[in-house]
Structure formats: structure tokens, C-alpha cells
Amino acid sequence: MIRLPQISPPTRQRWQRFRQHRRGWWSLWLLAALFLLGLAAPLLCRFGPREVMDTAAFERYRQTTLTLTPDTAAGRFNLTAEGRITRAENCAPFFPGLATVNGALLTNHWQLSPELPAALALRFANQAAPALETTLTAATQPPQQATLVLAPYEARETPPASVRITLRAAATADKQSFTARAAAPGETTCHVQPAAAWQQLPPAARSALAECLAQAFTGHEAVTNLSVAGSAFVARCRPAGVAWPHRPVPGHWMGVDVNGYDVWTRLVYGLRTSLTFGLLLVAWAMLLGFVIGAVQGYFGGWFDILAQRLIEIWSALPFLYVVILIGAVFGRSLLLLLLCYGLFNWISLSYYMRAEFLRLRHRPFVEAARCQGLSHARIIWRHLLPNALTPQLTLFPFELVGAIGALTALDFLGFGLPPLTPSWGELLQQAQQNRAAWWLALYPSSALFLVMLLTVLIGEGLRDAFDPKARTKLEG
Is 408 helix (H, G, I), strand (E, B) or coil? Predict the structure, then answer.
């Protein structure tokens, strides 16, 4: 029957001092409560970790894009080699005061730009010419400008008798875009962003646009014409389809990720994954570190030197490359990642344990145990281990922080747990690829910060409770 090592009186005193460290003690309870929260994830979450949300439930939260485009006049006509207009269409706004546009000379009403005569000459000479877009200025009052457009021209069998020209009036206002969503499901009122630009619109224009938005909220595109500050606009409301990721809405208070999974569910399951991985990894690493460091420190001599050289060689292996290689050969899994990471994470812990055993192996109580004929295993387990646990206990919280951070980093890089496994690193990777989805960055990073903060506070309390220097007095 294996007897557990008894806790020494100094260790009990240190534990009592830790309980008096209020910040560390309460952090331990909060971290334990979070771990229990993660274990109870199936009971606390309405959805499964890989349950895709139904888009129909988000139809009432769909957004609508409102675009106000200046309504500029556009006309077309043919221009002969003599400069006369024929076959005019919708050209009356560009030639005010004329009963008929056909037959009018273009130069009597518009000043030609320098490049336009050369472009027309090439076309009338039946030579290839590129497209041209230039600005004309009215020759009459009031002064106005228009954009003239010539299409590309390719040589034909016979020269053209006229050239087709398009005129577009210059925009007198800027294009504006808004994003609107209903204030509540089934309501006609809406929230429009940016709010400052929306409030600058006249009340009559806002009322007309609100009616247009209400129609768009039913799932149909709406178009209307209106006048804003004397300028004509075309308002077009396009309802956006439901897409992932989706912003937080009632029932999904932390939003939905790019795969259609509920972020709260993934966050809670990711908490369980992170803490379980961290605790198992640290336990596995501490076990290896204790065994190897204890054997080195207890026996010392050539065995210690040989083992130390082998550890130095092993620690020089690139951990990330080993994980990538093993994952490519055997696939990614939690147990495989624990095994790979545990094979490297014990090295620093073995150094501390080796140093403690080297310090304690020549103490009188160890020599007395040897004189009694006790076995090496009994001396290590019953006499040396209880006195060498201080470094292991004080390093445990910080090793846990490192393990959780390592898992998050590996998942963020794509070398950690299998795809679609609930993980904070996977959510942060989605946030990096979708910068506008702020909820994918805020909630996982906040959870990671909280867990690491509590763990560091626990480590701070253990360090203060187990530090002998804080209670050592020098007497002269």
C-alpha cells in the first residue's frame, strides 16, 4: 500500500499564511468557480458548441444599407463634323431656352476642352481613338459644368457621318451612405448610423427615408426620389442578408462567430478546454520534472552530469516544429498536444527540483534515514519530497498561465486543437480575419485576461506565503 507523504508543520504554516492572503485566497475560489462553470457548460448553454444558428431567427435583426446618390441629369446626342447636334435624347437640361436641341451648334452653348477637337478629328478621319472623358463649361449664364464622354472608336469601312456623345451634369452634392436597423422587431422606428449625418438631413427628408427603410425591413429593395437642400437625390434601400459573423442580439448576447456558432457557448466550452488542458499539462510536466529532477539531485555525480547534458540537448529541439510535424503525421488532438507539450514543459521544473534535492540530500535527517537502512525510494518520497515542494507549489500558477497562453497561441496560429474545437485562440483568429466583428476579439480576450489575472494573483499569494526571506530576522 502506497502511503502519501505527510505534510510537514512548516508547510501547514505556509498554507495558513496563504489563506490569510485575501487577494490570492479569493482568486483561488473564483478560479475554481470558473472551472466548475466550464464543467457545467452543457447545463448552462442553450446551444451546443457545434450547433449552427438558424438564420431565420436573425431575420428581424437584419440591417439595411441606405444610399443617397445625387440625381444628375444625363443626355445623349450625335455630333456632326460641322458641330451640329442631331438625334438628341434628354438634352433639354443642358441647353436651356432652346425649343429644340436638334440642329443647334454645340460651340454656341458649351466651351470645348482642348483635347475634344483632336478626339473628334480622329473619329471623323476614321482612325482608331481611345475613350475620352472631359469637362465642358457652359458658354452661357449661369455658368455650369458637365462631363462629356466619348466611347472608344475602331476604324470602319467608311468614315462616320456623326459621333455619339454622352453628357452628364456635374454633381452638386456628395453621395451619402447610412446603415439602419429596426429599433425593435416589428417596429417602424429605426436606428441609423452615422447619427450625426442623419440628424443633419431635413425632417421631411428623414420622414420620407424612414418610410423607404420600413419597406426595406420587410425584405424588399426600395427606391425613391427626394430633394435635400435644393439638390435632387435617389435614395436606394437595400436589405442585407443574414451573414456570419453576426453582431450581438437578444438571445445571443455575445454574438455569433464566422461558422454560425454562438460565441457565449464557445466561450464557456473554451474555458473548460483551456483550464482542463492547463491543469493536465502542468500536472504531467510537474510529475516528469519531479521524477527526473529528484533522481538527478539525489544521486548526483556522473549520473547528474550525464542527465543534465541530455536535457540540454533535448531542450534545444524546436518545439513548434515538432508539434507541426507530429500533427501532420498523426493529426491534431488534445491528448497528442498534451503529450507533445508535456515532453518539453518539464525541463524548467526539473531544474528547480534538482536544485532542492542537491541542497537537501546531505542534511542530517537524510543521513539519519540512510543509517536506518531506508530505501532510496522511501527517502525521496517520505523525507525529501515534503521539504522540496516549495518551488513546485509556487511555480504551479505561473506554469498554468503559461500552459493556457500556449494553447491559445497555438490555436491562434492554427497548430493547436483540431478544427472547430471550442477554443479562445480560434475565436481570436476569427477576430483577426474579421476586424469589424469586435465581439470576436472583446469577449475571448477578456476571458483570457480574467483567468490569467486570477492565476497570477494565486501565484503571488503562494509566493508571499512560502517565501522564507519575508520572515527572516538578522540578529547582531
Answer: helix
Closest alpha carbon to 146 in 125, 180, 169, 128 = 169
Q: Which residue has the cell 453576426?
A: 246
388 vs 381: CA distance, rounded Å: 10
- Kindly list the structural domains of the chain, giving each domain's residue range(s) and its CATH number in brackets, ordered by start: 9-59+250-470 (1.10.3720.10), 63-70+177-239 (no CATH), 74-169 (3.30.450.20)
Instruction: Determine the Cα–Cα distance for residues 451 and 276; give it in Å rounded to an integer.
Output: 13
Q: Which amino acid is at 72?
A: T
Residues paired with residue 76 on neighbouring β-strands, in sequence order: 89, 166
- Structure confidence by residue, pLDDT tens digits, 86-140: 999 989 888 888 888 999 999 988 988 889 999 999 999 999 999 999 999 888 7
CA 238, CA 217: separation in Å to the nearest integer?
9
Instruction: Give the whole-angstrom CA distance, residue 15 versus residue 8.
Output: 11
Q: How many residues does the chain have?
A: 476
How far is 232 from 176, CA to CA, in rounded Å?
13
Is the separation of the CB atoms in 457 and 381 below 8 Å?
A: no
Over 50: is that where the pLDDT of 371 sits? yes
Q: How far apart are CA 349 and CA 327, in angstroms?
A: 26
pLDDT of residue 221: 86
Q: In degrees rounded to 5, what are phi and psi of residue 451?
A: -65, -45
Distance CA 395, CA 475 (A): 31
Dihedral angle over CA of 211, 247, 220, 175, nearest 10 = 60
User: Which residue in this structure is represented by grid cell 523525507?
Assistant: 383
382: amino acid identity, one letter = R
**Separation of alpha carbons 40 and 414, rounded Å:** 27
What does the mean pLDDT of the chain come to?
Answer: 86
Largest CA distance in the chain: 126
Torsion sign across C-alpha atoms 248, 250, 253, 259:
negative
> Which contacts of 412-420 are long-range, i.e. CB under 8 A and separated by 24 or more positions?
415/320, 415/323, 415/324, 415/327, 415/332, 416/332, 416/337, 417/273, 417/332, 417/333, 417/334, 417/337, 418/331, 418/332, 418/333, 420/50, 420/259
CB within 8 A of 109, min separation 6: which ones? 94, 95, 138, 139, 140
